[in-house]
Write a structure and sequence with these properties.
Length: about 100
């Protein structure tokens, strides 16, 4: 459908995603290619130096590695294993016809 996992670039967008009430959900951020370097998969932009909303102590890369990211209650982000089953939030461009 032309969508991708959501790229959250502002507090207002974070608030909106949180307001969907989906519970912990995958977003379009990961550090699969380079540990500790989180990249938005849709734009390829680095998260570093732009809006982020990590939970305190995250990203932790815990256990055997956490390379995907979920948004949690309060809109805070946490890195989790990519194999973790979660709901997910997608976005797609507005198409004017
Ligand atoms: Ca990681
Ligand atoms: Ca984590």
């Amino acid at each position: 459908m032309g969508g991708h996992l959501v790229e959250i670039t502002s507090q207002s967008e974070d608030d909106f995603v949180r307001s969907l009430g989906t519970g912990p959900s995958h977003i379009g951020l990961n550090d699969i290619d380079n540990e500790g370097v989180h990249v938005w998969i849709s734009s390829g932009n680095l998260a570093f130096g732009t809006f982020t909303n990590w939970k305190v102590g995250e990203p932790s890369n815990g256990g055997s590695g956490e390379d995907c990211v979920e948004i949690r209650a309060q809109g805070r982000w946490n890195d989790v294993p990519c194999s973790l089953t979660r709901l997910y939030v997608c976005e797609r461009p507005i198409i004017f016809v």
